[in-house]
Amino acid sequence: FSAVYLGDEGGNFVMARRLEDGNFSTRIISRTSEPAGVIEIDRGPDLQIIATRTSSIISFDPRERPWYVLAKAEGRAVWSREYRLFTDQVPGITCAHPIYGPDGTYAGAVGIDFRLGELAEFLKSLKIGDSGLAFIADSEGNVLAYPEKSGLNFDNIRAPRSPLQQSIKTGWIKAALETFIMEKSLRFTYEHMGDRYIASFRPFPDNFGRDWTLGIIVPEEDFIGPIARIHETTLLFSFWLLIIGGFLTSTIARELTEPIKSITHEAKKIQKLDFEGEIDIRSPIAEIRAMSEAMNSMKKALGAFKKYVPSEVVQGLVNRQDEARLEAHTEEITLMFTDISNFSMIAEKVSPSQLMEQLSQYFDCIAALIHRHGGTIDKYIGDSVMAFWGGAMTSHEQAKQACRAAVDIIEATNRMNEKWLQQGSEIFATRIGVNTGVSLVGNFGSSDRFNYTAIGDSVNLASRLEGLNKLYETEIIVSESTATAAGKEFVFRPLDIVAVKGRHGSVKVFQLLGRCDSTDAELWKKVVTMSEAALQSYLNRDWRTSYEQFQSLLEVLHEDPAAEMYLSRCRELHESPPGPDWDGVFRVQSK
After folding, report:
1. How far is Cα 565 from Cα 470, in angstroms, rounded to an integer?
2. How far apart are CA 580 and CA 115, in angstroms?
3. How many CB atoms lie within 10 A of CB 112?
């Protein structure tokens, strides 16, 4: 064969082919990574690089080639009809095998090219009597390989043809094909222009995958010689038939099956943006070794790129067959900000190496939970994490997913803190703010470098909600929009109506206590009912009643900084009532 290659649904393409001078050529077409373009590498017989060429112009799309379309449609190993090979620009055929992802979706195809001219040369070298010949045809009588290249219309190989190959010039070949097509007989004799001929047709093995037939036609006069010569000729052609079948089936299966399986496995990993590990494919076929080296280079480059870009964003672009560009749009998303309480004081007491080790464990824990619940990590800001749900990872349950992640983060970091406390290490108390609202989401930056992020009032509010935890001594505070969208899966305690610094409007905020199926759910629901009543009395300016209700709430919880804060407010308001324009909104003066 002349070339082996791999194409995927993203339009990416890797090919290794043997040149006529004994050298090798590798072509890599990348559409889904930056920068997109074409890389061509020439290698010597020892696979040492001779020359490298790059181009940003991509004129070839594997998804439009006949072998790719056929493999995708059939869903199995297939052989194409004859067509003009794109790279060599000569007639040929392709063996293609589809590749599927772990979820069963079509990911791409592996192809191997064979030049028809090489089959023609092989058939021409066969000695069949004095003037006999062999050729290969399909079930419709289309001749695929013929001893004389001039006998086939190679210049018009894409043009539709009649069931009988009209470009065969030899009349007695046409007559044999007509008889074979009409009578479906594998062996017969016939007469043409006064001469008698013997024709034999031998179908290729079923596991070859194509309905091809080897035809042998010999003038009857050639067999008037000794019986031994006839027997020898018959054995010779049977032997060559086995060689052709073995070359196109057994040899390919033996030499390519395991390497192709390995390449397929690595292609699936690349499709999932998993670039770990090195490809180690051992094969006697130089083209496969060259393709293995090319894929290793691609994995290293993409693996380095992945560390700087949210993989969810890149995966979304690949799935949509889109390209990254400066653009943004407004949509409703759910944002989360996390922070470590008193981190500055902790950093003063802990050595840099110990702090780095603990932070790595802490961020690994948070990142894993955010990803598990479908979130995208936007950035790390010191000891804080900004994440959001929506954008490239669109979900109708974004608020629920964010709340699930928040609850799991608190539970996981509490377990981590218990372990650190036993080791004598400092603990990281986590505070979380969550808000759902319309934001501007997309790629921001300059033309050569940009960041996928979200900006707007909803983002700022989520950050301020995280800071409110310090005031109320809580762990998770969410906005009313998030609590409403998350539904009845969680227990939300009404906390206050606040106007955060830098924002004119007010927002009702809630403390996320946990899931409704928690062992403490009944106590939490009682706390919610009591908090709603106390807060309503507070807003109705009935501060005495509100004071008594918060006092009762404090007796239930034994310790509740938020209730204690309201007791202090009620005393002050009762002693010094505000004017009639008092709206109950607490205006926060700090971040």
Report:
1. 13
2. 92
3. 22
**Distance, CA of 555 to CA of 551 (rounded, Å):** 6
What CATH code is assigned to 3-116+248-306?
Answer: 3.30.450.20
The more confident residue out of 524 and 35 is: 524
Neighbours of 589 (CB within 10 A): 6
- Would you give the distance in Å from CA 373 to the centre of its chain? 18
Compute the distance between CA of residue 70 and CA of residue 98 in angstroms, rounded to an integer: 9
| Fold match, 3-116+248-306 / 325-518 | no
Contact 237, 135 (CB under 8 A): no
Architecture of domain 126-224: 2-Layer Sandwich (3.30)
Q: Which residue has the tokens 């061509």?
A: 40
Q: Taking CA 67 as the corner, what is the angle to CA 64 and CA 72, rounded to the nearest 5 degrees?
A: 80
CATH class (in words) of the domain with range 325-518 = alpha beta
**Cβ neighbourhood burial of 22 (10 Å; 0-12, 13-18, 19+):** exposed
AA letter at 311: S
Give the best-scoring range by mean pLDDT among 288-297, 398-407, 439-448, 573-582: 398-407
- Domain ranges in the chain are 3-116+248-306, 126-224, 325-518, 520-591
